[in-house]
Amino acid sequence: NRIEAKVESENINSIKVLQKLNFTFEGTMRKCEKSNEKFIDLSIYSKLITD
Known about the structure:
Blueprint: E1 2-8, H1 12-20, E2 24-35, E3 38-48
Antiparallel strand pairs: 1-3, 2-3
Organism: Bacillus cereus VD118
InterPro entries: Acyl_CoA_acyltransferase
Protein name: N-acetyltransferase domain-containing protein
């Protein structure tokens, strides 16, 4: 019924793919994941079977 994707907010190429596939941007999880010794933001996208 639902597919969800969480991508690094700075990963423009991955975001473009999700947008091309008509995923809906739901929001940003701020400073929620550690990468290279610093906390980063993740953008959340989703697609429902009805979309």
